[in-house]
Structures are given as structure tokens and as C-alpha cells.
Amino acid sequence: xxxxxxxxxxxxxxxxxxxxxxxxxxxxxxxxxxxxxxxxxxxxxxxxxxxxxxxxxxxxxxxxxxxxxxxxxxxxxxxxxxxxxxxxxxxxxxxxxxxxxxxxxxxxxxxxxxxxxxxxxxxxxxxxxxxxxxxxxxxxxxxxxxxxxxxxxxxxxxxxxxxxxxxxxxxxxxxxxxxxxxxxxxxx
Amino acid sequence: xxxxxxxxxxxxxxxxxxxxxxxxxxxxxxxxxxxxxxxxxxxxxxxxxxxxxxxxxxxxxxxxxxxxxxxxxxxxxxxxxxxxxxxxxxxxxxxxxxxxxxxxxxxxxxxxxxxxxxxxxxxxxxxxxxxxxx
Lengths: 188, 134
Hints:
By secondary structure, chain A is an all-alpha fold. Chain A is 71% helix and 0% strand. Chain A has a domain at 1-95: Orthogonal Bundle (Rna Polymerase Sigma Factor, Chain: A). Chain A has 9 helices and no strands. Chain A starts with a helix and ends with a helix. By secondary structure, chain B is an all-alpha fold. Helices cover 78% and strands 0% of the residues of chain B. Chain B is elongated. The interface between A and B is medium-sized, with 45 and 24 residues.
């Protein structure tokens, strides 16, 4: 029988390395993907997500079980990502996706080929690419709110728990983000 | 009001749908290496961290420096005592007076220097005495 995240976390708090390894295996892909969505650099995303696991191991004892484990862990991770972005933003241009620079291939180029008219599809892909680039230029909290909703499909109360703010604040972040995106895209 | 908000709501929903349709995928990761790195980082954090001054080389260096400063300080104090640089003003004054000792031996002459000013009067005094006698 598979143990729940919460049970594994309690065991990790007792320095059970097998439990910690199980949590890492369960969350590594999600943690890395979420970190990459916010920091937009593969190496930084790896470092930040690993740091989140280290913090998890160090502070597993403080997890009180009032929220879901995933919410608690995402909070650690998103805080690290937002802090990382704040530290980087003054000197690192971040409108460019590292992956674009590395491979010359946009994330949208790796999406499955559309089944409709290729000309329309190219225009559409460009639009979507511009849209995600615009997400990259949002303020860290707005960007995190959008990513948690769109990518992780978290409901507003859970986003609020991750960002440690009220649901109303999450809605404000989302509204501002979407208003900015709409302006950028010229009401797509 | 509701009709005014409706297009905005639709637009926002479209944007979110578009974003969800094309969520970018991060570059692939070698998960075995990822976990190995994580274990290394965790092991490094578990080692008790010593303050910089508690590490062997800085500790030896700091101790040597402190010892050296102590020795230099003690030597300086001792030398100062020996040389009497703990300045005694009475001694200085005595030395100055000693330098003028010759002058003091002739102090009686010095005391009578004022008589030189009245040397003419004194000479004349002899003449006055003679005239009074004559």
C-alpha cells in the first residue's frame, strides 16, 4: 500500500531517509517543472528545486498537517523561486527563455503538431509563444499565481495557501496579470 | 454592469485557455543525477558548520597573531620602563638645571651684574668721596 505524502513527511521529520527519497521521487518532476516555469533557467530550476527538498528535509517537523503536503511543499518552492527571481532580476535579462537560447527551439515548437491549417497554426503558435513570453515579464507574485492556476491547476484557495495570502489577493494578482496579458496581446 | 464585464470575463477565460493549451515544457533532466546531487548537497548541509574562526587554519593563524601581539606589547612596555620613557618631568628639570650648573656657580657675579649698569655712578662715587674729603 502506498503511503500518503503526509505520512512520508512525518517519517522524513524523524530522519527516515527512505521516506524522504520517496517524497523526492514523487515530487521531483513537478518541483523542477514549477521552478523552471518561474525562474526560466534549467540550471537554476534544478538548484532551486533541490534547495526546496533540502528545506523540506530540514523543516519536515514543522509540517502540522493542517494543509495538504503538496500545498506546504509548493509554498517552500514558490518562495524560493520568487526570492531567486528577485535576486536575479536586476542583472539577468529574463524575457528570453533559456531553452530558446540553447536550442533555438521554443517550448511551443515542441508541442504536438496541430491538425488544422498549417498557416493558421503558425500564427496561432506565434501568438501563444508571445503570450507565454508576456507571462515571463509579469511581477513574480502574479506570474506564480498564473502558473499555479494554469499549469498546476490549483484552485484559488490552494494558490492562496501556497502564496500565503488571502484568496482576494490571489484574485487581484490574477486579474492584474490577465489585464497585462490582454494589453500585451492586444485583446487576443 | 454585468454586460460590460462579460466580454472582459470571456477574454480572460480565453487567455487562460490559451496558456493552458501551450504550457511550455522544461528541458529534460537526468533524474538519477538530480537525486545524486541532492544527496550530496544534503550531506554537505548536515556537516556541523563551524564559524570561520573555528576552522583549523584560521584558528592557528589567529592564535599565532594574538601571541605575537602579546609578546610585542610586553616587550614594548618593558623597554619603555628600562629607557624611562615613562617621562618623569622632575628628572628632566634636574637635567636642565644640571646643564646650567656652571652659571649657578657664578651666581654671585650674575647677581651683581646690575651693578654694571651703574658702573659710572660707582666710579663717580669715588670722585665724590674725594671731593668731599678735599
